[in-house]
Amino acid sequence: MNVRDEMLAKLQQRKPGYSLEQAFYSDPDYYQVDLDTIWYRDWLFMGHDCELPKPGSYMTVQVGAYPVLIVRDAQKNVRAFHNACRHRGSRICSAEKGTAAKLVCPYHQWTYELDGRLLFARDMGADFKPTEFGLKPVHCETVGGYIFINLSEYAPDFAPVRAMVEPYFAPHTLSETKVAFEMTIVEKGNWKLTWENNRECYHCAGSHPELCRTFPEAPGVTGVDAMDEPEIAEHWQRCEAAGLPSKFQISPDGQFRAARMPLLRDAVSFTMSGKAASKRPLSPNVLTPQIGTMLLFHYPTTWNHILGDHASSFRVLPLGPNLTQVTTKWLVHKDAVEGVDYSIDELTKVWIATNDQDRRIIEENQFGINSPAYVPGPYSPVHEGGVLQFVDWYCNFMETRLKGASVPHLKVA
Ligand code: FES
Ligand SMILES: [Fe+2]
Question: pTM of the predicted model, to two decimals?
Answer without folding.
Answer: 0.96
